[in-house]
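Record minuted for completeness.

…
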Amino acid sequence: MPSDLDQALLLYFDGQQAKPSTQEQQPQTLNIFPSEPMHVEPSPKGFMASPAAPQIPGPSKKSSSPLSTKAGGKSSKAAIEREGSAGKRGGAAASSSEQDGPRTPDPKTLRRLAQNREAARKSRLRKKAYIQQLESGRIKLAQLEHEIQVARTQGALWGAGTLSPDAALFDLEYERWLGEHSKVVARVRAAAEEHHRPDGELRAYVDEAAAHYGALMGHKSRLAGADPLHLLSGLWKGAAERCFLWIGGFRPSELIKVVLQHVEPLTEQQAAGAFDVQQSARRAEDALDGELEALLRSLSEVVSSDAQPPGMPYGYGQYYHPADVAGYMHVALAMDKLASLGTFLRQADELRMQTLHALRQMLTARQAARCFVAVDDYFCRLRALSTLWTTSRTAQLARGPAG
């Protein structure tokens, strides 16, 4: 049997083993009513806090003292408080920056914004000018349509007798062309009078004047296919201008004489070139005159033929009623010959434009500018002379016969 000393030692060791197990089980006891509040500050945005794994009470090999657990709780609470205070400071800083307002942009940004505003302003101005141009064009078109309708209804314009709608439209276009041509020549004249004007700018004004003459030839070409007799008659010109009319316009060889008087001095090469252009224009004019004379002679023979309307007895009379002309067997041939007059008109206009282009290429920029100014002055004087003649004749008729 064990002795009393052995029993006492056994009890002592049993008590030492039971004491640590009791200390290990104490921290794992679930505290339903904690002494510290369990409120946790929300974590900042973007910070994902992983939930703590629940602890299951049970025996553990390593022991943890209550002091360490309490220290861990205090440290986690201090960290949470630091995060909360940092979040509050960040919110306060953001609110203070919002109250201070946006920062002033750098010079590059300001310059870009200014350029954008200037581009928007110019865009608005262009849009406004375009709208005004469309509105003025619409008004002009409405006026032109009204004038054409009046001309078609009345069948006569400005006392010139019966006029086809195409001829009336051409007369209106020619009047507008004259008004615009005066502005074009005024720019050429101003540029030619400036002695320090570069040749490139002078050449641009000369090209504009030549293109404007081309626009007139386009109007005449359209009328040549519809009503060539109106162009040949010269009723769209003044009385003095009709004295110098040649196949619906000016004679190129005669115009060269007028121009060369205002562009001197010329070099020997320029003088020889001008002489060649004049001789070439004169040969082309003679050829067109011969062909036109042959066409008119053929037309006269057709009209003077002894043919008579079918079904009508011979000797019906020397003059036919206008209603019977439709049955005339040579009417179709005569109409074809009249329509071919448009070909001569187009050829004459092409010769006029070729002469102007030849002079422009042969002369210097300043001489070419003076050339177009001289041409315009010549025709302006003829128109003024026509107006003066018509006015004087009207005044004389108003006064009545003398005595």
